[in-house]
Amino acid sequence: MTAIDVLTIGESLGLLVPEQPGRLAHVRGVTLGFGGAESNVAIGVARLGGSAAWVSRVGSDGLGSLIVREIRAEGVEVHAAVDEDAATALMIKERPRPGVSRVTYYRSAQAGSRLTASDVPPGVVERARILHVTGISAGLGSGPLAAIHSAIDRAKAAGVRVSFDVNHRSALWRDGRDAAAAYRALASRADIVFAGDDEAAILTGATDARDQLDAIRALGAETAVIKLGANGAIASQGDRVVTRGAKPVEVVDTVGAGDAFVAGWLAESALSSPLDRCIDVAISCGALACTVDGDWEAAPSRSDLAAFHSSAVDPVQR
User: Fold this and answer.
1) Domain count, the chain
2) Under 8 Å CB-to-CB from 309, ≥6 apart: which residues?
3) Who contacts 296 (Cβ-Cβ below 8 Å, separation ≥6)?
């Protein structure tokens, strides 16, 4: 079997977006799509020419079929168990006014939250160069959390590197469970850890970015990366700390930018690229993801990156 550069495991959801800004109660037209941090990353890696696979669980319904079809159409190897007893989860992204989004999730007890270790097929983790998981799976419940820990066990046994993105979703932790403890347990098993600065504060208790990097490295990560949004990113690996500012773009929608950043980093990491190359590509991917509506639609290809960095000023390509 062929190797997989990046394997992701996690839930994807159907996505409803009003066709124009305004109160949802007064908007009559919506578009149907999908999104999910882990599938966003897999698509992003595939767009950059890497081999990617995605493992999940969907319902036996139209949304599940749409998600599987579209992810597969992006060149991602799909392993999606079909749950006959639960529906595919759904999210609605309202746009109360231009430039502002509010997301509501309908995912409790849906198919993705019923993911188990047995849904991860034999051999798929072992074929990967990098296994990527997120804190979203931890928030979905004990089953998905156990599934990704089981996958990490398999990765460790096979010499596969592990990537963990905190990806905190406060709505998933309203039952009193300790998000920080769950995140630390996952970060302590990862080779690469990604977090936004606010998420790193949850994970480490520190508020300064360099202190956060040190705390993440102290948990055992070889590489720690703090995503700073409009301020760029800072990363630590070995005895080096590198920072990069954000690339200026006309922002349409920031949703999915963090996942595009991670995809860019992991695509380069799978090629054994140096730290500077990883952060440069990640920053560019995150910037381009902000230029189009949608969770994954603006994930760039290599040619998109080349055009983004080109000195040509003609906006029309002929």
Assistant:
1) 1
2) 284
3) 35, 39, 40, 43, 44, 74, 256, 259, 260
Q: How far is CA 241 from the centre of its chain?
A: 23
**What pLDDT, in 10s, does the model give residues 241-292?**
999 998 888 888 788 899 999 999 999 999 999 999 999 999 999 999 988 8
Domain assignment of residue 318, yes or no: no
* Residue 156: Cβ within 10 Å count: 15
- The 3-state DSSP class for residue 53 equals strand
CATH number assigned to the domain comprising residue 284: 3.40.1190.20
- Residue 4 in any domain: the answer is no
User: Which tops the pLDDT comparison, 88 or 177?
Assistant: 88
Helices (H) and strands (E) in the chain, counts: 10, 13
What string of DSSP letters covers 158-189? HT-EEEEE----GGGGTTS--HHHHHHHHHTT
Please report whether residue 316 resides in a domain: no
- How many angstroms separate the CA atoms of 28 and 22, rounded? 10
Tell me, yes or no, whether 5 lies in a domain: no
- CA 291/CA 306 separation, integer angstroms: 16
Taking the C-alpha atoms of residue 75 and residue 185, their distance in angstroms, rounded to an integer, is: 32
Residues 172-187 have a mean pLDDT of 94
- Give residue 85's pLDDT: 97
Show which residues are catalytic: 259
C-beta neighbour count of 52 within 10 angstroms: 31
DSSP states along 262-286: HHHHHHHHHTT--HHHHHHHHHHHH
Answer yes or no: is pLDDT of 313 > 60.
no
The boundaries of the domain holding residue 167 are 10-306
Instruction: Report CA-CA distances (Å) from 192 to 93, 159, 166, 316.
Output: 30, 14, 11, 39
Helical ranges in 74-161 per DSSP H: 135-140, 142-158
> pLDDT band at residue 103, thresholds of 50, 70 and 90?
confident
Q: Which of 275, 301, 315 is nearest to 50 (CA)?
A: 301
Place of tokens 């139209």: 62
